[in-house]
Amino acid sequence: MKNCDISDAREKLNSLQAIIGYTFNDENLLFTSLVHKSSEEAKFLTKEYNAQSLEFLGDKVLSYVLAKYLFTKYIDKDEGTLSELIAMLGKASYQNMVAKDLHLGEYIYMETNLRLNLDKTSILADHLEALIAAIYLDSDIDTTEKFILDKYLKDAHKVLDAKNDFINYKNILIDHAQKYNLDLIYTLLNEYGPDDDKSFEYKAELDGHKAIATAKTKKAAQQMAAKKLAIEMNLIE
């Protein structure tokens, strides 16, 4: 910053760094990500970029990490489903929820009147993406990914689990079976109907429990049986 010692803001910056779980090597990067164009502090910026340009980079870094996370977590889903999921996690409403959890609004430098209607603007979401870019520029992609996984995606289940179609119930059973060294068995019991309109009946068995379900595809029948079994075993509500 010019004509303004960063030590004046150090206590504020240190507080935010404790919340996000990352300590900056270059605190000017963090400061830049927090300065809204409306604030008096904007004139003290020394970087060749500002929060708006950081936001652009942060959006791209976030998209990469979200795509990687969702591809790994929902590897059996098609491209359309994954695109819908990434859109859900990239919405301003979700980003505002994350920003509020981090108390980010308390650390953004902006005109006082803008604070009155933060929920009706994209300010929180914009500066969250700017913060992600700042972490990336100050460190590397692995460190940034850890921040996104630990902080940004901490409550992702609130969004994703609301869509039951996106829950992989088979993975829930696999995790339980591996944890207790149990055998998880899927058995095809019957096939119904003509070749162009078949239905499949599957039985899922785990730890003395069993559940049966029928669906138009083998994968869907296994998922439905897994869901019934997970509910019976109180692994989900």
How would you concisely characterize the structure shown here?
This protein has 237 residues and is mainly alpha-helical. The chain has helices at residues 10-20, 27-34, 51-73, 79-90, 92-101, 123-138, 141-152, 156-160, 169-179, 218-232; strands at residues 184-192, 199-206, 209-215.
Write up what this structure looks like.
The chain is mostly helical. It folds into 2 domains: 3-161, Ribonuclease iii, N-terminal Endonuclease Domain, Chain A (Orthogonal Bundle); 169-233, Double Stranded RNA Binding Domain, CATH 3.30.160.20. Helices cover 52% and strands 10% of the residues. The protein is built from 10 helices and 3 strands, in the order αααααααααβββα. It has helices spanning 10-20, 27-34, 51-73, 79-90, 92-101, 123-138, 141-152, 156-160, 169-179, 218-232, and strands at 184-192, 199-206, 209-215. Strands 1-2-3 form a 3-stranded antiparallel beta sheet. Helix 3 (51-73) crosses helix 6 (123-138) and helix 3 crosses helix 7 (141-152). The radius of gyration is 23 Å and the shape is elongated. The termini are far apart. The relative contact order is 0.11. Residues 1-5 have low confidence and may be disordered.
* Secondary-structure class: mainly alpha
Helical content (DSSP H or I, runs of 4+)? 40-55%
H/E element string?
HHHHHHHHHEEEH
The averaged pLDDT comes out at 88
Count the strands? 3
Low-confidence stretches: 1-5
Net shape:
elongated
CATH fold name of the largest domain: Ribonuclease iii, N-terminal Endonuclease Domain, Chain A
What is the makeup of the main sheet? 3 strands, antiparallel
Approximately what portion of the residues adopt beta-strand conformation?
A: 5-15%
CATH class of the largest domain: Mainly Alpha
How many separate structural domains?
2
CATH superfamily of the largest domain: Ribonuclease III domain
